[in-house]
Amino acid sequence: FDYIKETLEYAKANKMEPFMIIETTRGCPYKCVYCEWGGGTGTKIIKKDMELVKRDIMALKRAGYRDAYLTDANFGAFEDRDIEIFRFAWHNNFNLTDISTMKSKSLERRKRLIDRWFEIVGYGPEKHSKAEGGTDMWGETEYVSVVPTVSIQSISDEAMKISKRVDLSCEDKLELSRHIEKRCREEGFPVPALELILAMPGSTLQDFYDEVEVIWNFKAWSSFRHDYMFLPDSELNAKEYKEQHKIKTVEVFSDIVDEDGIDNWKTLYKNKKTHFNTMLSCYSYTEEDMKEMWFMNNAANYLLQNFYTGIQDYCKPQDFAKECFNVISKLDDYKPLKEEIDDIFNPDTPPRSIRKLGGQFRVVTIEDMLKKNMPIIKSEVMSRILNK
């Protein structure tokens, strides 16, 4: 207890975000090829005793924490038990955040899990308190993600199949996204994070654009697809798997301090680079497709939020995003960005940060370019769509 209290005091003293994880189960019956959880995949799930979980929650609260990252891989697998854990925490003014829901092919079960969650939290006030040194439970939801995340990974059924990922069908994922967005809007909650992976083998460029509809359904403007990481001991990284699916990779890195585009970790992680291999191409898409997807992964959310609302009655989100790229790719201001992107995805040049573009966080650079060119983008895209 003294140690966890000390970690909180250290975080506050160094102006760091207090962060604590809590785990109530271990193990996962699934064998997703991109997962590297040693000893955790393809196993039975072991449950921690309920009284121990409650003790852990109350100890964290007594130490001064108001939330903890729930790292259970399949929240809801033991539905009544898992819901009771969240209920206990919520009723004791403690948030369990970033909840990753169970993998299930049952849309009814996934919807029920979300609905039971909303039965606990109820409807929130229109204005949240942000008193110095403390806040109410609803105020906390502005800073942490308490609505269970939606683990979609890819909208492509083929990508799910070859990644050995058990999940909803493409149509059911779209329906679940609409259901969660509706419940969040009705109950006054910010939408949860989306778990999407960029350019999974088996997916196509069209699949990428079809995923834009999911992002639009959620209005999840801060959710971007994760760069695909080839973890060393994952099946994804096996030579045989790469050969089977004609996978080509490129080495990149990420500065930990740039994970969210802001150096909010001071000097603790300074110059700590994470090198990894990511997708370059595979049997289902080309290198140029990959570069297009990487750019639009960082551009589409801004375009949806700041442009699509005006013409949503005339085209689908995926068609809108594609037309936007067709226009943007011909702009003079896109050319230097494209040269950098070509270099990032060039396996014959030194590895570059996959999170930086134009000397700053990639989203910032891309959004600045879009803002500058928005009048011509709007004019050209509207002309293309209205004249179809």
Structure notes:
The chain is mainly alpha-helical. It is 44% helix and 11% strand. It has 13 helices and eleven strands. The protein has helices at 2-13, 50-63, 79-91, 107-121, 137-140, 157-162, 170-187, 205-218, 239-244, 287-306, 317-328, 334-344, 362-386, and strands at residues 21-22, 25-26, 46-47, 67-70, 95-97, 150-153, 194-196, 248-255, 273-281, 356-357, 360-361. Strands 1-4-5 form a three-stranded parallel sheet, with helices on one face. Helix 3 (79-91) links the parallel strand 4 (67-70) and strand 5. Helix 2 (50-63) packs parallel to helix 3 (79-91), helix 10 packs across helix 11 and helix 11 crosses helix 13. The longest helix is centred in the last third of the chain and has 25 residues, at 362-386. It is globular and about 60 Å long. 33% of the residues are buried.
Can you lay out the helices and strands and say which pair or pack?
Layout: H1 2-13, E1 21-22, E2 25-26, E3 46-47, H2 50-63, E4 67-70, H3 79-91, E5 95-97, H4 107-121, H5 137-140, E6 150-153, H6 157-162, H7 170-187, E7 194-196, H8 205-218, H9 239-244, E8 248-255, E9 273-281, H10 287-306, H11 317-328, H12 334-344, E10 356-357, E11 360-361, H13 362-386
Parallel strand pairs: 1-4, 4-5, 6-7
Antiparallel strand pairs: 2-3, 8-9, 10-11
